[in-house]
């Protein structure tokens, strides 16, 4: 009987301790409705920024488990200027299809995952000013090149779920069958295996991928007009939105976005792309 009491006491004590630890863990990320978003970020001592894990050279995790890429460099600068230390950024790994949901559910403060601005997305999140320009492109095998959309009729086109590529072809070319994947790694593996006639994605992405994958070329380098890529915050978070816009203007005076390009994108594109074709400095499109 005594042994049973001891066991029960141990279980109760353990439960209390677990509850205490859980409470401590929760308190580190709990939001205070009385605090503004920036006050909350400073109270937490970190800023949570959503980035890709598998989209080099924009956002990816290297062999040492470190976040790298163009978006990541800019995100670190945001943390440095807001909190005084770039290490105070917490990178949250996202996929294209869940970027909006992560903002809506307060899992992140900012999305910096190569997020293209669209009218549909503007209904759900607030976009800051842009830091990049982009259009769609199509990559295909050299032995069966796709150089026009007309060649895709009756064939499969590989896309990522939740991307502008999926939206564009769904709305404008419903006759083309789309083979959809959640993750970039899955999408490009499908292209390597030639499960589709081509792969549509941001032209910045397919150009970079083709350069590092012999046997594939970008036959359609620009499609659907020029769009912009920008940081996004939760709908209605005007304070953080204004801070980002001011930050982009400030770092633009030192050409920081161009410097981030030189560090992360130029090694991939070389001289085949002019930085001014892609980079937006100061948050202002020219």
UniProtKB/TrEMBL annotation:
GO term, biological process aspect, one: amino acid transport
Gene3D superfamilies: Periplasmic binding protein-like II
The UniProt record lists the keyword Signal: yes
Cellular component annotations (GO), alphabetically ordered: extracellular region; outer membrane-bounded periplasmic space
PROSITE patterns linked: PROKAR_LIPOPROTEIN (PS51257)
SUPFAM superfamilies tied to this protein: Periplasmic binding protein-like II
Domain Solute-binding protein family 3/N-terminal: 46-268
Signal peptide start-end: 1-22
Keyword flag Transport: yes
Keywords: Signal, Transport
Stated family: Belongs to the bacterial solute-binding protein 3 family.
Stored PANTHER family: ABC TRANSPORTER GLUTAMINE-BINDING PROTEIN GLNH (PTHR30085:SF6), AMINO ACID ABC TRANSPORTER PERMEASE (PTHR30085)
Protein name: Amino acid ABC transporter substrate-binding protein
């Amino acid at each position: 009987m005594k042994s049973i009491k001891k066991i029960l006491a141990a279980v109760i004590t353990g439960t209390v301790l677990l509850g205490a630890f859980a409470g401590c863990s929760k308190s580190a990320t709990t939001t205070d409705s009385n605090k503004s978003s920036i006050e909350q970020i400073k109270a937490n001592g970190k800023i949570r920024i959503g980035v890709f894990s598998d989209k080099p050279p924009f956002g990816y995790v290297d062999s040492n488990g470190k976040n790298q890429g163009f978006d990541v460099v800019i995100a670190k600068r945001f943390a440095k200027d807001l909190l005084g230390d770039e290490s105070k950024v917490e990178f949250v790994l996202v996929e294209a299809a869940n970027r909006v949901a992560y903002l809506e559910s307060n899992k992140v403060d900012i999305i910096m995952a190569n997020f293209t601005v669209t009218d549909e997305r503007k209904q759900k999140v607030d976009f800051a000013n842009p830091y990049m320009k982009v259009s769609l492109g199509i990559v295909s095998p050299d032995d069966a090149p796709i150089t026009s959309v007309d060649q895709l009729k009756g064939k499969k086109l590989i896309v990522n779920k939740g991307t502008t590529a999926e939206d564009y072809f769904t709305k404008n070319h419903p006759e083309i069958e789309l083979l959809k994947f959640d993750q970039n790694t899955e999408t490009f593996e499908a292209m390597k295996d030639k499960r589709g006639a081509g792969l549509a994605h941001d032209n910045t992405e397919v150009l970079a991928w083709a350069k590092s994958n012999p046997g594939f070329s970008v036959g359609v380098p620009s499609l659907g007009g020029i769009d912009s890529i920008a940081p996004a915050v939760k709908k209605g978070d005007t304070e953080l939105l204004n801070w980002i816009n001011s930050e982009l203007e400030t770092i633009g005076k030192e050409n920081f976005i161009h410097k981030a390009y030189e560090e992360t994108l130029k090694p991939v594109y070389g001289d085949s792309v002019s930085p001014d074709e892609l980079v937006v400095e100061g948050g202002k499109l020219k």
